[in-house]
Request: fold
Amino acid sequence: MKPLLLRLHRWTTLVFAAPLALVILTGLILSFEPIAQDMATRGTAIPAERIVGYLAKHDPEGKARSIAIRAYENRMVIQGVGPDGSLDLDLKTGEAVDDDERTMLSDIFGTAKNLHEHFIFDLRWMVTASTIAMVVLIVLGVFMGWPRLRNTISGWHQGVAWFGLPVLALSPITGLMLAYGVSFTTPLPQDKAALPKIREAVEMLGKERDLGGLIWLRNRGGRLLARVNDGGVFRVYQVSRQGVQPTQTNWPRGLHEGNAFGLWTGVMVVLTSFGFIGLMVTGLIIYVRRRFRKPNRVRVRDAQPAE
Reply:
């Protein structure tokens, strides 16, 4: 039975090698985003009046659909205004900035996220299939039995897979939950007539907290939601004219992105990404060695002296 499982494990890896490599590498890049956001927002104070002033200056007609604060770049982005439909502001001065000529960290995160979720040519099904393949590989590895821990490529491959099993399995499982919309949450009711404008929502949020931890404020599914960094935990609040209400925690998203329990969750996701990279590299090395290794009878014949 074990040779059959090993063969399935090997061929599943080879078939999905390219999309798996892309998903893992982009996942590694994205795992640093919540860490960068958290480190940049800690100790940062942004009074609501400052953001309201920026909106009054650059969006006097109240057309903004959303705002996002990229503290690690000292930027605030207003969607729905400007000639291109988006306006970047310096977070300290409130003046419009143009960074089209240089690559920003957010551009790297944005490209990585697009590839991570859509692969290339918007082949989202390939990402889902690769994630399923990752779960299958983990299950096959478990059924192949206990590891033989040795200081070899194979020993390290098995050791990382077994000792990292809980967090390694958590990543693709939560990824599939996100792909299929599983969140274990019930949306709060929202009266569209009570939906405030972005500027009004900022004022409401500012009455309850400093906005140094605000990550974004936007309309999603007919609800106005605000994502806030609360001591390393990214929480989501629903904003309406009736007040600001915390939503239920989306555990699959928080665990997958690394912002469920604070900074250490982000570090766990980074280590998980490195673990997958190590498994893929060592697995391919093992395959190449076995594929091009001479059979035993050929090695014995070559070792015999010529008569």
